[in-house]
Each structure stands twice: as structure tokens, then as C-alpha cells.
Amino acid sequence: MSNSPDKLFKKASNKHKAGEHAAARLLYQRILKRHPEDVDTLYMLGTLYAEQGDLLKASRYLLQAANHAPRSPMIQNNLGNVYLQSGEYEEAVLCYQKTLMIDASMSQANYNLGQALMQLGRLSEALSYYQKTVTLQPHYFSAWFNLGKVEMALGQYDKAIAALRKALELQPDSSLILHSLGSALAVADQNDEAIRCYERLLELRPEDESAKHALAVLKGETTARAPQGHVASIFDELSTSFEQHLCELGYEIPALIYQSLIEQTSEDVQFKHMLDMGCGTGLAGPLFSKHAVQLDGVDLSPKMVELARAKEVYSQLETADLIGYLQQSEDKYDLLLATDVFVYLGDLHPVFKAVTESAQAGAWFLFSIELCEGDDYQLCATGRYAQSAAYIERLAKEFGFSIKAEQDVTVREEQGKAVPGKIYLLQLD
């Protein structure tokens, strides 16, 4: 970009570099009063606002700079960065595409475009830009890492492992890379190396709950429940693509449970107070809300709760562990629902106890499980839990529930195979 015509620009730039943002901002604004179309100043002021987290003002000034200098790849790229941080992914894609039309060899713009496309779920396109990035800049470990993640999501496990190994060479102590590589190796049945990845990760981060859970899976151990932090992080990461992902898996558990409840009661049935336990993005909310005077929801993932709130069918939503929530709640419910929740809770005894203590007489308790043989529950190779029919029957009897309906279902399609499960409708005696 050309030098600023105003002698204050150098002083403003020095203040900016020194971290004296307030002083730099005032100087940039003084320049723009005299030279409102000065590209360098518009660009630097937009960049300063972006650094301070004021993305609205950042986009305004960077957009002005881009209008005055449409052939500047740096301005287009940084404007794309602001849109990316703002969650305006389509706008970010357009900016990065303009950047690469001007300079196709700009590795950062290729990487950034991959990031935006990944957020939009356009994984095959994102893959190509990550590949371009590592070709242009072979030591860009974040590009190798994201390349591996996308290849993993596309089912290209051998390629994912190769990319993640390259990333690990560049950053040997990265817990994120070790976690992703361990996961890819486990899916590819290379369990010994996967175990080594997670053991190394725990040397670096002894408190890592997800690594502990993964090791339990790989070693064939059965724990009582998945760690709360592990579950919350999974769903925070999946939140934006969660409903599309479930659709691809053939997920229809909320609708099946809803239909079964209507068959057991009536199409006009009404409940005073319903709790959606592990509500996720609120998939069940629109189905059940017309039958509940008050519909509350609870979930471990803050991002899932925000998406559920956007559906505008819940009276109250909380981010919390469902057992702790029930134990602390003074409310009494006549309908409690848990769809695809118990796959993260192996031992259901604490759940049944908490539900019983929070339920009104005659309350309904509806839920789904993945199904296993035996008398109790097990931690599966997928990292999810499955329960047996005998276990559910024993818990229902112990806590005073009658099984009003049960149905064998396919809870999801995974790698082309049906995952067997059951839905249950219990009523408190």
C-alpha cells in the first residue's frame, strides 16, 4: 500500500505497534478528518478495532479501505478475518476468494478460506484449500492439523493419520494434535499407537478428561459415565452442524418417542411442567411444546443451549449437568424426556434416583438407549454407552416405574450400519 499523505500516520502507526491503542486511534481519526479516503489509515484503524474485538467498527473501516483499494489482497484477507470472527462465514468466503483472485499464492488466505468453508460444512472444498496451504507452506502445522481433521470427517482415515502425523512432527507437544491423531488411529483399529498418543497427552495434560475417557474405551474398561467436560466440548464443537449431522445419521428418536406418547395418551394430552434433559439444540422442543404449559431444558453445552433458545419454545433453559440440575431443583415435573442422552451415562441409577425425587405422582419418564446384551451397561468402542433391556427393567422396578411402552428402534446409522436401540415410556406409580 502507498505511504499515507499525512505525517501523523507514522506516529499513529508507532503508537499502534507499541500497544498504545487509544492514542493510535485518536491519531488515525485525526488523519481521516483531513483525508477520509486514505487507504492506509482506513486499513490500520480497521485492524486496530479488530484487535480490540470491536468487529462491527473493524468491518466498517476495512470495507471502506477495500472499496478504495479493491486490488489489495491484504485488505481483502483481513476483512475476511473480521467476517470469520463475526460468524459471517459466507461473507468471509467471498473476501478470501477475492484475495486469491489477486494473489493465489497467499498461503494465509488459502488457509483462512479453508477455515470459513469448514465452518459452513463445505468439507470437500475446505480440503482443497488446506492442501494448497501445505503445498505453499509445508511447515504450517495448523494447516496440517485442519487438513487431518477434514480428512477424518470425510472418512479418509489413512490420509488423516498421515496429515496429523505431519502436524505432530511440527508440534510434538500439542495436545490437540495428539487427541485428533489418537482418535483417527482408533477408528483405523491401530489401537496400540492410539493408546500411546493418549498416554503422551496425559503426560502433558494429566487433567484431560477426554483423553482419560478415550483410554478407557481403547483398553476395554467400562466407566460409570463420560466426563462432563468431555461431553460439553464435543457438543460445543458440533453445535453449528449438529442437526445436519443427525439428519445424515438418520436420527428420528424425538419423533418416535413423541408418537409413542400420543398413542399411550391422546393427541390433546397436556402436562403442567416438562423437562427436556440433555435438550441439545432443542430438536424435541417443537414437538412437545404444544403439550406442555411450561417446557424447561438443560444441557451441558452452552452453545447447544443458545441454539435451543433460538427456537423460542422453551420457558427456561440452563447449562448444567442434568443430575446436578435435578438434585438442586425445587420444581416437580410431570413429564421428563431424555433423547440420546444415556449414551453418555452408563450407570443410570443416579439418573433414575434424581428423576424420581423430582417427579410428581404419575409422571412420565421417556428416554432412548443404545442396546447391549447382558445385565447392565457397557462402554462401547464408539466411546458411547449402551444399556441392556434387563438393566432398564430392573431400574424401573426399583424406583417404582411401570413400563407403559417399549420399542426396538435403530437409533442411528453409523458407517453404513444400523445401531440398535430401544425407546421407553415409563410412568411413576
Portion in strands: 15-25%
Described by strand count, sense and barrel closure, the largest sheet is: 7 strands, mixed
The low-pLDDT segments are none
Give the count of helical stretches.
21
* Name of the CATH first level of the largest domain: Mainly Alpha
Mean of residue pLDDT? 91
Number of DSSP E strands: 9
What structural class do the secondary elements suggest? alpha/beta
Assign the CATH superfamily of the largest domain. Tetratricopeptide repeat domain
Describe the protein's architecture and organization.
- Strands 3-2-1-4-5-9-8 form a 7-stranded mixed β-sheet, with helices on both faces. A two-stranded antiparallel ribbon has the order 6-7.
- Helix 9 packs antiparallel against helix 10 and helix 9 runs parallel beside helix 11.
- 56% of the residues lie in helices and 16% in strands.
- The chain is α/β, with parallel strands linked by helices.
- The chain has helices spanning 8-17, 21-34, 39-51, 55-68, 73-86, 89-102, 107-119, 123-136, 141-153, 157-170, 175-187, 191-204, 209-218, 228-238, 242-248, 253-264, 285-288, 302-309, 322-328, 349-358, 389-398; strands at residues 271-277, 292-299, 316-319, 333-338, 359-370, 377-379, 385-387, 401-414, 417-428.
- It has 2 domains: 8-218, Alpha Horseshoe (Serine Threonine Protein Phosphatase 5, Tetratricopeptide repeat), CATH 1.25.40.10; 235-428, Vaccinia Virus protein VP39 (Rossmann fold).
- The chain is globular and about 85 Å long.
- Strand 4, helix 20 (349-358) and strand 5 form a beta-alpha-beta unit.
- It is built from 21 helices and 9 strands.
